[in-house]
Design a protein that fits this description.
The complex is a heterodimer of chains A (385) and B (941). Chain A has 385 residues and is mainly beta. Helices cover 4% and strands 46% of the residues of chain A. Chain A is built from 1 helix and 34 strands. In chain A, a hairpin with a 4-residue loop joins strand 21 and strand 22. Chain B is of the alpha+beta class and 941 residues long. Among the domains of chain B are: 35-165, Glutaredoxin (3-Layer(aba) Sandwich), CATH 3.40.30.160; 167-278, Neutral Protease, domain 2, CATH 1.10.390; 288-579, Neuraminidase (6 Propeller). In chain B, 15% of the residues lie in helices and 44% in strands. Chain B has 11 helices and 52 strands. In chain B, the strands form 9 sheets. Chain B has an 18-stranded antiparallel β-sheet that branches. In chain B, strands 4-5-3-2-1-32 form a 6-stranded mixed β-sheet. In chain B, strands 11, 12, 13, 14 and 15 form a 5-stranded antiparallel β-sheet that branches. The radius of gyration of chain B is 31 Å and the shape is globular. The chains are: A mainly beta (385), B alpha+beta (941). At the A-B interface, strand 7 of A face helix 2, helix 9 and strand 34 of B.
Chain lengths: 385, 941
């Protein structure tokens, strides 16, 4: 309509661009390096999702914020008082873990599908590049605000990185395994010849991962050499966790397999009947598994017998976390379940407007999680005795 | 092709939305989607669906609901995705009722088995008598639902614009691949395509865009990808969809291989699979005589009379499906042209033949029994060959669809299969003389293709009541007419159809897909008691759809080959014994009668009556700026209920040229259009204001403000004819010279029209049939008597078919407005008086006449540039003569033109037109010097 003057129109346009495009990069000066957080997916190289405390089922929503893109089935990482959240629009957000305020964001064109790994002042993250057939591992120093290194590799990466003392382990979807040191240089790389969408785990110096062809491969973390390959399934798509030298993994036909990584043999195999995509987790006594049919299982860690099973009616493709009392299981069908891990009773169910997308992370009495439309939520746990 | 189909409802809405039709020549013809039924809708609420059904369809709806939930659980795993909103699933009990749906604006052809529409996310499915097919269609459509949801979520999750979608071959191929196994029909289509050079590689899928072949090639391509690269790659294609701008790049990235290489592998795989068929299978032309070579020809029936031997069949050879007769002359290689016996699809009684179904039989006495859609249901007609007229017709209020009529041997009865209001597909028997109907079966098993035994003591029929290890396969059964007992004849893991006894009744013949495609098998009639087995006679590569006997050893078949259905004559005695393959029946696998699982409902509260739920259909807005008139803009919104029966339109726009005019120049219109019942009605209010072009004085404008309301009705007599009536009351203030000369009026306009349209369309316009409109109207100024005129329009168009793609189109039209402030009609331009400047011919009275020869000009040409190519197809030519004249009080002169033209249908969106010719000037006395050249768009008249 003619009543808007031309100058007003121009000003409106400029302001809009400014608001949309001028967010600041991640630049954090006051860092306490003595404080630990959750600096990789599963906290430890062997993927430990167990928190040995009782959390109860009482929660207070501490804050809620919205970022640009949505999430893959991954988790944020936490360091000091900062939450690093990857999103599918190619951004890494740094949020204040106490308030949810945005402290900075790194923007790229593509998607970040896996948990960024924090090493001191630096962050490793993988960008699956838009309109390109390669992806980029970026190593960014958020103290200086500069990129240290960028490593380009073919294909994409949906496998979680492993943080080790002297660097990270990266496994691409095309089956290339890299060890990168803490200054961002490649130490070694090997091509395994197998496509893999299984997040690896590391224990006893062995990097263990599964392939789409059903092999379990062990690679020496120091030397970068394949130790063994065992064909034990028709194909894997779920992550691996290792506990007491036993690797737990789910396969495409719904088998939960316990594999002794030293003895190189299958200990037991539990059939759920439907494909498993999330990572198996263990609390030392039981293994917890969920499949795409929406069933959640508790399986005896030693003998592979069923403790209990529940049917959620949803889709379980997100790794849960477990406490002394509860298994906290996200469900793609907009639910977060608090399940009594001994009995399998659903004690609490949080329903959301959109799909639950991220594996929760627990740190300093706060549970962090993400749902569709880029919503990040922080719940303060009112712990039971 | 029926271009008008999709436009019908949209234009109907515009008719209701915009009043003042009397001063506009914008009207349309078009067929009618008739709502014969007032469906009494109910909803079953399941975990993930709202299942809409009506009247007696509850039992089948509950079965369908169970199929839907079962499919949902499977698809959420396949897609690694969940649809979090409730999915509306709308069931119709037959295809005839399905064609009445208002969820889509256009007509639904017979071949459409269901659809998923994107605006409201509705899945709409007709039940067609077979539960396995019902399950297949439900699963197919739900794959669409999941795929759409997955893709849209992938794009939104990555914050990309939702402006692209996978190609249609992938969408439909995936729906087939993930909903059903590779079946006989798929196998037949692929065999035919590959072995007859119709098959296209994946890189050329555009060439078969939208065709059934595309569905099957897409399905086959995805199966190949899954086999060679892994099933997970199918999901990977969708999960990587966000990453690239072209689907080809997505394929390359996901499979890790160049697309051309994948395509080459696939073509090699397909050829490897199908070429060896030639070793022991045959095309239909081998050892047979081809009787037809054009169109689609089904259901042959031989009849011997004193006048000769003829083959009667249902065919589509012109665009209208009809009954034809072919002289049967033995031992000639000439392919004769059949004669038209009874033309369909031009009038209500024979509104549609069901071309792909078994729908015709001929008795020894020379009576043709055939089925057509006739109004709101199917009717069974009896046509006398000798007397050449339809003697009788049968319909029943309980029966919606009828198929497979079959005379008894004594000619007194006719058996057929029919679907009733519950959706049950059962056998019936009609005593022809008394028209007494007897129901023979009554359950949800599909029973069809009845055939009388030698002494009419029993019927052989096809049914999916097969249980045990071959559960739901369509096997042959025997029905004793006296005891009503049903027993198995065959029991194999295959589907059967068309049982027919030989003329001497010593053998039973039928088709079966036991070897992968429908071939002819036989068993001795005496074996029907002992059920010993069946023997394969033919080994064709593609299916035999139907057959009829000339004598015990000679047969006429309707067979699928080169993507058409043609009639062949085969001599059974020439089939060597070495090719006859025998299969024994093993009845040990028969189990308990199978029961279709119905959804378990928590309570009766899970079934509720439908109450209208309105949601937004679309919202469109636009702002335009030009240096002369400034900035203006507006919006159009549409709401409708879930079943599409009730629509609301909101239009708002502003035509202010300066800020001070802003409030004065708001244009608003609110309308409601209801098509729930047979009589569609609409009403609304409006306020229109702004400058109008005065067609009395060129380049002059006047300002008019009018506001008021209207009411309109449309009553369809049939698909082809309707009555339209409308009335509007509007206050009109006109400023002719600003501030000086103005006219006020309170206008009451009434009009009534009769419309007929049974035309057949081709690429650029009608090619057969006729259409006309007769309109009477009256407009008067109730308050100031400033306006007072009557209107009359007669517009008649007839199309005389000369060949399949050639026609002579004629038009004769008269437009009259007579009285005070009678409005002028306009003509001139590419749409009527070609050569004359567009809309330059004006008068309160106008006549137009045209004769045009329409013909195919260029079927296809391709231009290949170094980096890309372009193809153009179906370019048509026109040779025309136009004449007309316009006047107010005294006739001025006759205008005319002659010329040639070219038309091209641009992706079914618009037709581009280019004409060259000479005007006839001087009151039709001389041609213009030189030529005129005129380019425009628009369908042929």
């Amino acid at each position: 309509m003619g009543f808007l003057k031309l100058s007003n129109k121009i000003l409106l346009i400029i302001l809009s661009f400014t608001l949309v495009y001028c967010s600041k990069s991640i630049l954090l000066k006051n860092i306490n390096l003595t404080q630990t957080g959750v600096e990789q997916f599963g906290r430890t190289p062997n993927r430990d999702f167990f928190y040995p405390i009782n959390i109860g089922d009482s929660l207070n929503l501490k804050w809620r914020t919205q970022i640009h893109g949505s999430f893959n089935s991954t988790s944020p990482s936490i360091f000091f008082k900062y939450l690093f959240v990857p999103d599918l629009s190619g951004r890494i957000y740094c949020l204040n873990s106490e308030s949810g305020r945005e402290e900075g964001v790194q923007k790229d064109k593509g998607s970040v599908e896996i948990t960024p790994v924090i090493y001191r002042y630096r962050i490793f993250y993988v960008l699956n590049e838009y309109d390109e057939k390669y992806s980029t591992l970026s190593y960014y120093d958020f103290f200086t605000g500069k990129y240290i290194k960028k490593l380009r590799f073919n294909g994409s990466c949906s496998n979680e990185m492993i943080k080790i003392d002297d660097g990270i382990i990266l496994l691409t979807d095309g089956g290339e395994l890299y060890k990168i040191n803490n200054i961002g240089e490649k130490v070694w790389s090997i091509y395994t010849g197998r496509k893999t969408t299984t997040s690896p785990a590391l224990a006893n110096g062995k990097i263990i991962f599964g392939t789409n062809m059903g092999e379990l491969i062990a690679v020496d973390e120091k030397k970068g050499k394949v130790i063994y390959r065992k064909l034990i399934s028709s194909g894997f798509d779920s992550g691996i966790s290792i506990s007491d030298n036993i690797a737990y993994v789910g396969d495409n036909t719904g088998n939960v397999i316990a594999f002794d990584i030293e003895e190189e043999k299958v200990i037991w195999n539990f059939k759920t009947g439907t494909k498993i995509k999330s990572t198996m987790i263990s609390d030392g006594a039981s293994v917890y598994a969920g499949n795409l049919k929406g069933d959640v299982y508790s399986i005896d860690k030693i003998n592979g017998e069923l403790n209990w099973k529940i049917s959620t009616g949803g889709v379980i493709n997100i790794t849960p976390i477990v406490f002394d009392d509860y298994l906290v299981q996200p469900d793609l069908n907009r639910n977060l379940f608090f399940i009594d891990k001994l009995t399998g009773d659903v004690k609490k169910k949080l329903e959301y407007e959109h799909r639950v997308r991220m594996t929760p992370v627990f740190h300093k009495n706060t549970l962090y999680m993400g749902i569709d439309k880029g919503e990040v939520l922080a719940y303060e746990i009112i712990q039971s005795d | 092709m029926r271009k008008i189909s999709n436009r019908h409802k949209i234009l109907l809405a515009l008719l209701f939305l915009f009043t003042n039709t009397l001063d506009a020549q914008l009207y349309f013809f078009g067929r009618n989607k008739v709502q014969y039924e007032k469906f009494n809708w109910q909803i079953i609420k399941t975990d993930h669906f709202n299942i809409y059904f009506y009247d007696d369809f509850k039992e089948m709806a509950e079965i369908g609901a169970e199929y839907a939930e079962e499919a949902f659980e499977e698809l959420k795993v396949k897609f690694d995705h969940i649809v979090t909103t409730r999915i509306p699933l709308i069931f119709y009990n037959t295809h005839i009722h399905f064609q009445q749906t208002n969820t889509l604006p256009g007509f639904i052809p017979e071949g459409v088995g269901g659809f998923f529409e994107f605006i409201k996310g509705r899945v709409v499915i007709p039940y067609q008598g077979n539960l396995e097919q019902f399950r297949h269609v439900i699963r197919h459509e739900l794959v669409h639902v999941f795929m759409t949801s997955k893709i849209l979520n992938e794009l939104r999750d990555h914050r990309l614009t939702v402006d692209r979608f996978p190609p249609l071959w992938f969408v439909e191929g995936l729906a087939e691949y993930w909903s059903y196994h590779w079946d006989t029909q798929a196998e037949m289509v692929m065999r035919d395509a590959v072995l007859n050079n119709i098959f296209v590689p994946a890189s050329d899928f555009d060439r078969i865009y939208g065709s059934f072949l595309m569905y099957k090639e897409g399905q086959a391509f995805l199966e190949f990808i899954a086999d060679k690269y892994g099933e997970d790659k199918i999901l990977g294609l969708m999960e990587n969809f966000w990453r690239f701008n072209t689907f080809k790049e997505t394929i390359e990235f996901t499979l890790g291989e160049k697309f051309e290489k994948v395509d080459n592998y696939w073509v090699y795989h397909v050829k490897q699979n199908y070429f060896p068929l030639y070793l022991d299978k045959f095309p239909h032309f081998v050892d047979s005589r081809k009787l037809t070579d054009f169109g689609f020809n089904f259901s042959p029936n031989f009849h011997k009379s004193k006048n000769g031997n003829d083959i009667y069949f249902v065919g589509n050879r012109t665009g209208y499906t009809s009954i034809y007769k072919l002289d049967y002359i033995k031992d000639t290689n000439e392919v004769l042209s059949p004669d038209l016996v009874l033309e369909g699809e031009r009038e209500e009684t024979f509104e549609a033949f069901h071309l792909l179904e078994n729908s015709i039989d001929v008795s020894k006495e020379g009576i043709i029994a055939f089925v057509t859609k006739s109004g709101d249901r199917d009717a069974l007609h009896f046509y006398s060959i000798d007397h050449e007229f339809v003697m009788n017709s049968f319909e029943d209020d309980e029966l919606v669809s009828i198929t497979a009529p079959r005379f008894s041997n004594d000619g007194k009865f006719i058996a057929f299969s029919a679907i009733d209001n519950k959706g049950f597909s059962d056998l019936y028997e009609l005593h022809i003389e008394s028209m007494k109907l007897t129901r023979l079966t009554n359950d949800y098993f599909q029973d069809t293709d009845p055939c009388y035994g030698p002494n009419d003591e029993y019927l052989v029929f096809i049914s999916d009541r097969t249980d045990g290890v071959n559960k739901q396969k369509l096997n042959l059964f025997k029905f004793d007419r006296e005891t009503k007992y049903i027993e198995y004849i065959t029991y194999v893991d295959a589907d059967f159809s068309r049982p027919r006894f030989s003329p001497s009744f010593d053998k039973l013949y039928f088709t079966s897909d036991y070897d992968g495609t429908n071939n002819i098998w036989t068993m001795d009639e005496s074996d029907l008691k002992f059920n010993s087995g069946m023997t394969q006679l033919t080994h064709y590569i593609t299916s035999v759809y139907d057959f009829s006997f000339i004598n015990d050893t000679t047969m006429i078949t309707s067979a699928f080959e080169k993507f058409s259905f043609q009639l062949y004559e085969i001599d059974l005695s020439k089939i060597p014994d070495s090719l006859k393959h025998h299969v024994e029946f093993d009845y040990s696998g028969i189990g308990d009668k199978w029961i279709a699982k119905e959804i378990m409902l928590d309570s009766e509260d899970d079934i509720i009556h439908y109450e209208k739920e309105y949601t937004l259909d679309y919202a469109v807005s636009q702002v335009i700026t030009d240096p002369v008139y400034g900035t203006r803009g507006g919006a159009l919104l549409s709401l409708s209920d879930l079943l599409g029966d009730d629509k609301y339109y909101f239009l708002i726009y502003n035509t202010a040229e300066v800020q001070s005019e802003l409030l004065r120049n708001f244009n608003v219109a609110i309308s409601r259009v209801n098509s729930y019942k047979r009589t569609n009605f609409g009403y609304g209010i409006f306020h229109f204001t702004g400058r109008r072009y005065d067609i009395r004085q060129s380049n002059e404008y006047f300002y008019e403000r009018s506001f008021g309301g209207y009411f309109s009705l449309i009553y369809p007599f049939s698909t082809f004819q309707r009555l339209e009536a409308s009335t509007s009351l509007a206050n009109s203030d006109k400023e002719i010279d600003f501030g000086i000369n103005s006219r006020k009026a309170l206008l009451l306009s009434n009009q009534i029209s009769f419309v007929h349209d049974n035309t057949l369309w081709m690429h650029t316009g009608p090619i057969d049939g006729s259409r006309f409109r007769l309109l009477f109207g009256y407009t008067s100024d109730l308050k100031y008597s400033n306006v007072n005129f009557y209107s009359f329009i007669a517009d008649y168009r007839q199309y005389f078919r000369l060949g399949f793609r050639t026609t002579v189109a004629t038009r004769a039209s008269v437009f009259v407005n007579h009285g005070k402030e009678a409005r002028r009609y306009i003509a001139g331009g590419s749409w009527d008086l070609r050569g004359w400047r567009r809309w330059s011919v004006r008068g309160e009275k106008l006549w137009l006449s045209s004769v045009e020869l329409r013909y195919p000009l260029i079927d296809q040409f391709v231009v290949n540039f170094p980096f890309f190519g372009m193809g153009f197809s179906s370019i048509r030519g026109a040779l025309y003569f136009d004449a007309g004249g316009a006047w107010d009080d005294e006739y001025v002169e006759t205008l005319g033109s002659v010329g040639v033209g070219v038309r091209w249908n641009f992706f079914n969106v618009i037709t581009l037109r280019y004409d060259i010719g000479k005007k006839i000037e001087g009151d039709f006395s001389y041609f213009q010097p030189g030529l005129f050249y005129q380019f425009f768009f628009g369908w042929d008249f």
